[in-house]
Design a protein that fits this description.
Chain B: It comes from Gracilibacillus halophilus YIM-C55.5. The complex is a heterodimer of chains A (about 250) and B (about 260). Chain A is mostly helical. Helix content of chain A is about 85%, strand content about 0%. Chain B has about 260 residues and is α/β, with parallel strands linked by helices. In chain B, the strands form two sheets. A six-stranded mixed beta sheet of chain B has the order 5-6-7-3-8-9, sandwiched between helices. Chain B has a three-stranded antiparallel beta sheet with strand order 2-1-4, with helices on one face. The radius of gyration of chain B is 19 Å and the shape is globular. Classes of the chains: A mainly alpha (about 250), B alpha/beta (about 260).
């Protein structure tokens, strides 16, 4: 037991040591001007810039805008994806009917569809949410369908033998049974949503984290640009922790 | 009047664009309260027969009738093989599954669930998920679930096949004790002769594919039985040998037919 704890601590130290070593090296090389500090400002300076920008208050506005877009876009994509995925998993005919549509649209990067989205939905907030929704839709729909399809047929037999109605079958068997794989899809979707919003904000927006990165790059304010990168990294990590916590709550039986 | 009547049942499957006869001319009568074992080599179609009775498959030809005395009760419930316990439901939710699906009154669900949880000794474990249970405990859940549903007849598909020897004996005796209280009609599938001898009032021996009933052996040993008594009885030993010979011949026969 003691050995186990020791090993566990050892692992934790290893896990946090890699980024720390990287940061120290970066700081050192930048201060020594081995790395050009104009392009690679030292981490302490970036941190200071973050604090300054935060004090200004404008940064929170950009963060808020991005988070709102991600949140709404995410829901806009995930909800229909789960419905369609469940349908595809439960009804063979629907899968046969619908999968060509997925096959056609999935390989197109959502950003390449941005012009069409802008034409359809204008340049407002909604078109950004739609962009995220589309990019989140595919992994979640495909994973949900796979989750249902992978439910052991014996549970279908059990449900049938014990006279479950189709509503009960859906709620007690198909939905909970597909949940583990579905959540993996949502986890993937979350990562893609973050990628998409930043790229979309770089192209056509005047607010948001992506905009912060792009504008500061254009103005050659690189510490400010790094602050944007730092924020994305932070939120990516935060979201995946959040989803993992949700997973533990939703799947006590795993 | 028989509880279960099967008349000239036939079943064919299509396998690689060919018809395969799985069951051939099956006629069985089972009396109310009887415990009948279907015994046969693997692949003889006994599971298919059970699935037809369970409404999970349709016969190609022939009739089945199960006498439905109390319309409140479901016609049949099945005890599945080990993996049939639903992993995302707790022990309690699994046991009450059938009752909930039929929208029984809450009090009744509680009462039945508690009663059978007590019977199989899982009351303490009611809030656990199946992943936390041993194979034997999972099968107890499956048995409790079927009995709690209070069906007219019970169908059991090799419920103990995956268990180790000791657990198997324990569960067999537990099953017998519950069965004797409820006096339900049971059709039980197995490929273990020992199991069939311990449990049944009658053993129906099946041939290898296509499955036919080739022997109908009454087992007259008095109840309650224990595995020791079955092992010690000379009658039972003779029956064992008789069945063994039959099965042996069937397996050989099937092999030579395939080559």
């Amino acid at each position: 037991m003691r050995k186990l704890i020791k090993w566990f601590k050892h692992q934790q130290i290893l896990t946090i040591s890699a980024p720390i070593v990287l940061l120290i090296a970066w700081e050192f090389f930048s201060r020594m001007e081995i790395l050009d500090p104009r392009f690679f400002p030292p981490p302490t300076l970036i941190l200071q810039t973050l604090i300054d920008m935060g004090a200004g208050g404008e940064l929170f506005h950009h963060i808020g805008v991005s988070l709102l877009r991600i949140f709404c876009g995410f829901l806009l994509g995930v909800i229909p994806a789960i419905c369609i995925g469940l349908f595809m998993g439960m009804y063979k005919w629907f899968k046969t009917f619908f999968s060509p549509i997925i096959m056609i649209f999935m390989p197109i990067p959502t950003l390449a569809m941005l012009p069409i989205i802008l034409i359809l939905f204008g340049i407002g907030e909604f078109s950004k949410m739609v962009t995220i929704a589309i990019s989140v839709f595919f992994p979640v729909a495909i994973n949900t369908a796979a989750g249902v399809a992978n439910i052991d047929p014996i549970y279908t037999d059990v449900a049938k033998n014990f006279q479950a109605s189709s509503k009960d079958f859906f709620l007690k068997i198909a939905l909970p049974g597909s949940l583990p794989v579905m959540l993996e899809g949502i986890q993937m979707g979350q990562a893609i949503a973050l990628l998409t919003i930043v790229a979309a904000e770089m192209i056509g927006a005047n607010s948001g984290i992506g905009y912060v990165i792009w504008m500061n790059y254009k103005a050659f304010l690189l510490p400010e640009m790094y602050v944007g990168l730092l924020l994305i990294s932070f939120f990516g990590y935060f979201f995946s922790l959040l989803l993992r916590g949700l997973e533990r709550k939703l799947l006590p039986w795993k | 009047m028989f509880k279960i009547q099967i008349r000239q049942l036939e079943k064919q499957f299509v396998k690689q664009h060919q018809y395969v006869d799985v069951l051939e001319n099956i006629s069985i009568d089972i009396k109310k309260g009887e415990f009948v074992c279907l015994l046969g080599p693997s692949g003889c179609g006994k599971t298919t027969l059970l699935r037809i009775l369970a409404g999970l498959e349709k016969p190609s030809l022939g009739d089945i009738s199960i006498q439905h005395e109390n319309k409140q009760n479901p016609l049949q419930s099945m005890v599945f093989q080990e993996s049939g316990v639903i992993p995302w439901m707790t022990v309690e939710e699994n046991v009450s599954f059938g009752l909930k699906m039929r929208h029984m009154p809450t009090d009744y669900i509680h009462e039945q669930t508690n009663h059978y949880l007590e019977k199989v000794g899982l009351r303490r474990f009611r809030k656990l998920y199946p992943k936390e249970l041993s194979g034997g405990m999972k099968q107890r859940v499956s048995i409790a679930r079927a009995f709690a549903n209070n069906p007219e007849i019970l169908l059991m598909d090799e419920p103990f096949a995956a268990l180790d020897e000791q657990n198997k004996f324990i569960l067999q005796e537990e099953l017998l004790s519950i069965w004797q209280e409820t006096e339900k009609t049971v059709l039980f599938i197995t490929h273990s002769i020992d199991e069939a001898l311990l449990l049944s009032d009658r053993i129906l021996l099946m041939s290898a594919q296509p499955g036919k009933i080739i022997e109908d052996l009454p087992i007259q040993m008095q109840r309650p039985r224990s595995i020791e008594q079955v092992r010690a009885s000379e009658d039972m030993t003779n029956t064992f040998l008789n069945i063994w010979e039959h099965l042996h011949r069937e397996v050989k026969h099937a092999r030579s037919a395939n080559h």
